[in-house]
Structures are given as C-alpha cells and as structure tokens.
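Deliverable D5.2: sample structural annotation.
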Amino acid sequence: MTRATALLLALLAGATAQAAVVVTVTDASNRPVDQVVVIVEPVGGDRGAAVPRGTGLRAVIDQQSLQFVPAVSVVRTGTAIDFPNSDQVRHQVYSFSQAKNFKLALYAGKIYPPLVFDKPGLVTLGCNIHDSMIGFVYVTDSPWFGKTDAQGHVEITAVPPGDYRVRLWHPRFAPDEAQIERSLKVPVTGDANLPVSLKRALQPEPGNNASNKWKGY
C-alpha cells in the first residue's frame, strides 16, 4: 500500500466515523436527574445539514390523569406531534410560545390532525380547563438530541468527530442554571463522555393537580 493510499483511507475513515455522546446528569446531592433535554450542536458548521428537517418525523404527547405524557419532549424541527386525549374528561390544549402558538378547542379522544412544530425553541403547553396541566416541547434544528432516563443517563449516537456545544435544559433547573452549556470534542474513535453535576437544587414541581375546580369537566 502506498503512502498516498494509506492517507486516503485514513481520511475516508475519519469522514465516516461516528461516535456516541454519553451524558450523565446529577443534582447537587449527587442524585440522577431524569427528563433533562440534551442537545448536541456542532461548532463552526452544521454537520446535520444533510439530514432534512421534517421528513416523516412524528411524536405523540398524550393526556392521561390530567397530565401531559410525556411531560417533557424533545423533537427535531419539522416534527408532527399528535395530541390525543386518553382521559375521561375533555381538554383544551394550547400554547402561547413564540416557537408554536396554537389552541385546540375542547375535545376528547383523537379528533385533530398532528401539529407540525416548524420553529426551533421551547414550547410550553397548557390546558385552558385544567390549569395544573403543564408540558414542555423543546424543538431543535440539531439531529443529535435526547433526554435523560431515570438514571440521569442519555446516549446520543451517530455523532461525527469534531467540536460540539452540548446544551442541557430542564423545567426544574434553578434560574441561574436554566440553560447549561458545555464544550465537548467527539473523537474519531471511541465515545465522548460528559458528566454534568448541578450546583443548585431542583425547583419544585410545576402545577398542582389537587387544586383544580374544573377537574371533573
């Protein structure tokens, strides 16, 4: 094998190499934090541009026991989201968020087509009938994202090597940690591990299902 051929093969391997970004989040007491949105964004260029936005991407946010399920979602820009109502009462889902402003008139079951979330940003969901119902949809242009599990762990796969910015968000992060950012280099071989320890305690849970005069509506 000539030196030129070896160099070409090395370049091709580097171009096609992909790794996993493994993020683990713990709170100020070293306990795992679940439902943390994790976004991996390339620095100095969009390596995800080859992955078209909104090509058959779908998600579901149900309504069960007067709660949005899941309470926190993260989707790519262009994702169509269904909002079925599995409760025995009717709901009126809405959002005033800049990234997605909408209102679904009072309904039960599944009567509306999915809504396309076509702008990046944070979308806060509510119900006009049940004020305690709060949900969140984090919409991102990046193709590399995830959400931590009960062990505070998420693995985001198929990330090409390079320099990245990792963003973390959670509805209960303290105000001065509302948007956490870390720099990360993804190697050509092997995974990139990023432990994140919060400095502040989590804020109280939003909403209170116990006090809602419209509960039986």
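Annotation notes: The two ends are 76 Å apart (CA to CA). Helices lie at 3-16.
The annotation will be released with the project's public dataset once the embargo ends.
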